[in-house]
Amino acid sequence: MPAVDEVLNEPGLSVAAAPAPARRRRTDLAAALSYLALAVLVLIQLWIDPAGRVLSHNDDDHGFFAFALAHGERVLFDGANPLFSDRMNVPDGVNMMANTTELALTVPLAPVTHWLGVGVSVVLLLTLGLAGTAFAWYFVLSRHLVESRRAAWVGGLWCGFAPTMVSHANGHINFVSQYVVPFIVWQVLRLREPGRAVRGGIVLGLLVVLQVFINEETLLFTALTLGVFVVAYAALAWSRVRDYWRRFLAGLSVAVVTAAVPLAYPLWFQFTGPQSYSGQPFEPGKFVTDLLALGAYARQSLAGNAAIARELSVSPTEDNSFFGLPMLVLTGVCVALLWRNLAARAAAIAGLVLLIMSMGPELRVGGHDTGIPLPFALIAHLPVIDLVSVTRFAMVPATVIGLLLALAADRFPLLGRRRRAAFWIGLAVAIVPVLPKPLPVVEADPLPPFIAQRMWREYVPAGRTLVTVPLPEVTTGRSGMRWFALSGLDYAVPRGYFMGPANPPLNRTGSWNAAPRPTSDLLRITGAYGRKPNVSVSDRLAARADLAYWRAAVVVLVPGTPHHDLLATTVSELLGRPPRPVGGVQLWDVRDIVPPSG
Q: Which residues does the UniProt record annotate as the domain DUF6311 (predicted)?
């Protein structure tokens, strides 16, 4: 591959030598097993009881991805529409393409979900995401960019288990499943080779299709990074680029056409289909990277401090930088060592640009907005960009650091013994403090017999729904969402935690909640604040109208929910009837409330 080698095998870089096949296979196996062991360790507390525990830092997304996996099972076993679910948010449904439902993972994993349950599938995908991403980068590095398997292992370790990856392992299956990205990057670089425009473009296009059905946001980050890399490299070495830019663009064109054919309808459905939306439920500058977070340690790092991380990060799932001061210093050393290499320099520039983008429209330091404007303000409201949580752009420099570490580690054997020793000592000082701790979990309440023994089937006929109180919403009604997912979506529910339009057709801005309804708002406020509302005639009429709209058959109060007795009293007053105990729950039979026709 001489054309690629000209870019990547410059002073300080080399293409991997070919060790004996048997030795290479043993080394590869050892690398894979080491990554897998570390991933299991990170998720060990969830592995102990996948169905009975939830990730304590993010049980909302834990519940959502359980729902997505159950949907994947229904697609394979029941022929459900993969792009739309009519089982949640009845009667409006959920646009699955407009949510991070990972169809490329949930559908193939449907047999596991069917036979072992969604709990096992959730922890399995999180584990394979961490380990698989690490091994994918190890594979590409060891085959194409470095001679030393040790250097490739170091790069894979960081790319798969950097603080941002471990942070997103708190339920974000879509963000830890990055094992396609290294191959996309490599295929893009190979497009400059003679004779690869068609073949390479087709391969790249198919990889893009696969990544779209895993996580579009990661694909966007990858595309932006590669775009900055190409521009930076062209600016640094136009004399080389002008010899192959035509075939590079030809290959990209083939990739675009290849991807566009299978993606045309799903993307049309995502952006214009039922329950589609535009924008996020927050301003672009709300969730950004704090400057001080770069040198701090994340909650789940060995040296992490939860109190400090809370001040510098928006949530435990968004510790997207937190490299630690030693790693920042070591990264600077790597850049200096590799400075003569234009490809490494362009990669460093791309990482820096995306890091600055992650800081949002104005600089934030120590949790305080400084008012200092940043370049992101110029593009904050562009289509597609406005769908991104800005701090996640910092995931890119995290990966770039991993690549620079591998390239530098591969270069150091050419230096003196003392400098080699200093590098490996510095690497240990930088990496050890950010090694991950097991993710925290909490015990989930056991399913009541009404759900576990499917007693609900006696009360919920086809076309009707089971309404849990609290209703499933973001940050509330988590038990109801969990019941629904663990049941395999056997019954339908109103509302839920997902992304959809805030209040269509008047407001199609993205929201984590279904469109507001009087009864859901009243019960949510009652449960959150523990204050008994004065239930009026209009409240009772609204409750009947809402239950009819939701096609409700029964209303079920979740056992052990906060302010349980107050909620029971409120629901009884709204419905004008008392509950009766059935299978460990309080149940109101509302089958007499007839849904609207059509």
A: 84-407
